[in-house]
Design a protein that fits this description.
With 233 residues, the protein is an alpha+beta fold. Helix content is 24%, strand content 25%. The longest helix is centred in the middle third of the chain and has 24 residues. The two termini are 22 Å apart.
Length: 233
């Protein structure tokens, strides 16, 4: 953060409450910091660090199961609402996969309603879904893997068709661009056997404001790498 990578930085799966972190360090660098943590300690959670003070901060969406896990943090900047989201993973079994499908449907309904009052939206986060075959290194081998299941990919189709734009693909149509690599096998990152499951998508009415989008695999803080959007406000 000392390198000043962006005006706003969104983090998912913080696994911490604000009081667990020496957040004065962020303040000293000129960032306001906002947190929405899970009720279960050491689990899930999202945070936003921003040099631009938001006009309003909203925790959650009003859906209890999602809010208990600290999955959505919303900030208003003028007429744009930024949503930082940590989508559920279904990799631990059928129960969580069912929860993921329910969460996706509830979230889509929430976004459809939100767009009526906040038509300009940016949805940033770990979606835990690779949308198309171009977004995963081994689509055939992972056709039955959570994160690339037909119903998850179909949800992404419906989501984008409802007035959203994949900002990265607007600029980068090329393959082999990923944002996550399994840590179970350290060599897969060296071999770039990854998934693109992190997105900063916007409503289509912001398309003319899009300046740049990028993925930075050389930055290695975790099994994910940063994704980036530059937009004119």
């Amino acid at each position: 953060m000392k390198t000043d990578p962006a005006d706003i930085i969104c983090v998912q799966e913080t696994k911490a409450n604000r009081d667990n972190v020496a957040h004065q360090q962020f303040t000293d660098l000129g960032f306001y910091d906002y947190w929405f943590s899970a009720q279960k300690k050491g689990y899930s959670g999202v945070a936003v660090f921003t040099k631009l003070k938001p006009d309003q901060v909203e925790l959650g969406t009003g859906h209890k199961l999602s809010d208990d896990e600290g999955r959505i943090l919303q900030l208003d900047f003028g007429d744009i609402r930024l949503i930082n989201a940590y989508f559920p993973s279904g990799t631990s079994g059928d129960e969580r996969q069912d929860f993921k499908y329910k969460w996706l449907d509830e979230f889509q309904a929430y976004l459809n309603k939100l767009k009526k009052s906040h038509p300009k939206l940016i949805l940033c986060g770990d979606y835990n879904i690779a949308h198309r075959e171009i977004d995963i290194h081994d689509p055939k081998g992972n056709k039955n893997s959570s994160g690339f299941l037909p119903d998850e990919r179909a949800w992404m189709d419906r989501f984008l068709a409802s007035g959203w734009m994949d900002s990265f693909r607007e600029i980068h149509p090329e393959p082999y661009r990923y944002s996550w690599w399994s840590q179970r096998f350290p060599s897969v990152r060296l071999q770039n056997k990854g998934w693109r499951i992190d997105y900063i998508n916007t409503t289509e009415n912001l398309k003319k404001n899009l300046l740049n989008a990028e993925i930075y695999p050389e930055i290695k803080h975790s099994d994910h790498c940063p994704v980036y959007l530059e937009i004119k406000t």
